[in-house]
Amino acid sequence: MSAPVIDRAGRARDAVTREAWAEAYALLHARDRHPDRPLTADDLSALSDAAWWCGHLDESVAARLRAHAAHVAAGDHRGAGLAAWWLHHEYADLGRPAVAAGWLHRARHHLDGLPPCPEQSFLAWADAEEATARGDGPAALAAAGRMTRLAEGSGSPDLLALGRQAASAVLLAQGRRTEGLALLDEAMGAAEAGELSDIVTGRVHCLALTRCGEAADFGRAVEWTRTAMEWCATHGTGENPFRGVCRAHRVQVLDLLGEWTAAEEEARRACREVPVDHLEAAASAYCAAGDVQRRQGRLDEAARSYARAHELGRLPQPGLALLRLAQGRADAAATGLRLALACQDAHHGPSARARLLAASAEVSLAVGAVRDAADAAAELDALAGDVPLLRALADTAAGAVALAGGPGEALPVLRRALDLWLRLRVPYEAARTRTLVAAADRAAGDEEAARLELAFAREGFERLGAGPDARRTAAHGLV
Predict the structure, then answer these.
(1) Which residues contact 115 (CB under 8 A, 6 or more apart)?
(2) Residue 359: pLDDT band with limits 50, 70, 90
(3) What is the per-residue pLDDT across 459-478, written as a single tens digit (0 to 9) for each?
(4) Measured distance CA(100)–CA(290) in Å, rounded
(5) Nearest of 90, 13, 34 to residue 59 by alpha carbon
(6) If you write DSSP's letter for every residue of 264-310 in order, what string do you get?
(7) For the chain, which terminal residue's Cβ has fewer other Cβ atoms within 10 angstroms, N or C?
(8) Which of 217, 211, 209 is nearest to 249 (CA)?
(9) Rounded distance, CA 113 to CA 254, Å?
(10) What's CA 453's distance to the chain center, in Å?
């Protein structure tokens, strides 16, 4: 090999080592188009990674296919198995499940029967996810344990972090919240300490944000979305495929915190940044934007946001049902929620179902179906446990149902809910709960307390720009 060729190859590999992906892509792409000699299997894998980071997904898959073929030609089953697993992962993200399944089978063909090796940890990860999806808890735990043992044997910080997050997903799915979140903390600690490669750091951030969202851990969601966005701002110059996904999670946090202007702007940015293999993140951002627009009385804009989320494959509930309620279409709202609750599968986690149940109780009360509201509130109460965000939702729903049936038992439950919303710093829900507390105070004969609660509620709604709620509060005639 001539000196210039060695220099080009060395520069490309140095860029890969530094995770300077734009530079690596330019160098490897140029070498591939004008080869002095063919790229090696490792070079092709690096080209695939670099193309993915730079948003060239088709090129990434094409280079990975060539890397797999090169490993097969060299008789390297471990390399071929790893390339096949990544192809499975990429095709799954691109919405081609049949092709993804085929590549997973090929990965097993390459790796099954070999002595224990780090590459087999990815198969164990797939086994854990499949077992969790079919509700086989023991098999999921066994697969997660196998992944952890292989990761520990490899000494790879990347595999250890991925193993911990995989085990946390299994534990959280089985309701073992404390253990599952502890493992997530460990994985995130490694990411925050800079111990992981860029691609694994990004995946750990995205997976952790998804898990704490599903588990309704609002405290972790606030903290981790902030640190995720800080990491995205300093890594992957120009292009960072994780930025849009992490931003979409941040939108949901900003929404709850009442930072609605920022949430809507971040939602627009997330939809521009999300890569095509993660469109579900864009859909969630549209849902969050629709929620802001709905609460501010911008109903036509909310309808468009929910429609866009639906187009991207996400059922925009409960936001769409609450929009129908605001439009005076309570029957459509109730039907939409009933179907959403019937169709929801277990992998969405308790948070998604809790939001549906809370909205179902609200809509049922609006149409006078107190028994249906009580049933939704009872299921929500059983689901909530001692998770603060879910407990606040459950107590609010239970208090609203109690208020509809007679105010005697409503006040202590509603005050407990208000205290939780205030401690969580979720201003919109706190203001809405204040209006219920005010109604309970008034029913109990305490007009002064009712006026104070309504004044605070109206102030909160006006600060948020929740015009319809502010007007309804003022219409009570007590403020």
Answers:
(1) none
(2) very high
(3) 999 999 999 999 999 887 54
(4) 33
(5) 90
(6) HHHHHHHHHHS-GGGHHHHHHHHHHHHHHHHHTT-HHHHHHHHHHHH
(7) N
(8) 209
(9) 49
(10) 34
The span from the CA of 474 to the CA of 23, in Å, is: 60
Structure confidence by residue, pLDDT tens digits, 199-255: 999 999 999 999 988 889 999 999 999 999 999 988 755 568 899 999 999 999 999
Closest CA to 347 of 157, 163, 211, 235: 211
Helix 41-53 to helix 77-93 angle (10° resolution) is: 20
Phi-psi sector, 96: left (phi>0), alpha (psi -120 to 50), beta: beta
As given in the structure block, the two tokens for residue 417 are 């809910």
Residues 31 and 186: their CA atoms lie apart, in Å, by: 40
Residue 361 corresponds to which tokens in the numbers above?
């109780």
User: Quick one: pLDDT band at residue 3, thresholds 50, 70, 90?
Assistant: very low
State what percent of residues in the chain have pLDDT above 70. Answer: 96
What would the DSSP string read from start to end of 312-372? TT---TTHHHHHHHHTT-HHHHHHHHHHHHHH--GGGHHHHHHHHHHHHHHHHHHTT-HHH
- Cα(319)–Cα(309) distance, rounded to whole angstroms? 11
Confidence of residue 345 (pLDDT cuts 50, 70, 90): low
CA–CA separation, 439 and 450 (whole Å):
7
Specify burial of residue 124 (Cβ count, 10 A radius: 0-12, 13-18, 19+).
Answer: buried
Residue whose C-alpha is closest to residue 99's, from 108, 110, 88, 107: 88
CA distance 340 to 332: 12
Q: Which of 278, 201, 208, 286 is nearest to 245 (CA)?
A: 278
Residue 162 in tokens: 């991925």
pLDDT digit string (tens) for 168-178? 999 998 889 99
**Residues 27-48, buried b or exposed e (16+ Cβ, 10 A)?**
bbbebbeeeeeebebebbbbbb
pLDDT value of residue 2: 46
Q: Taking the CB of residue 464, how many other CB atoms lie within 10 A of it?
A: 20
Report the distance separating Cα 349 and Cα 215, nearest Å. Answer: 6
Is 438:453 a contact under the CB 8 Å cutoff? yes
| This prediction's pTM | 0.88
Nearest in space to 49 (alpha carbons), one of 65, 69, 63, 34: 63
Kindly state the tokens that stand for 163: 């193993």
Q: What is the pLDDT of residue 9?
A: 73
Write down how long the chain is.
479
Tell me the pLDDT of the chain averaged across its residues.
91
- Is residue 377 within 8 A of residue 394, CB to CB? The reply is yes
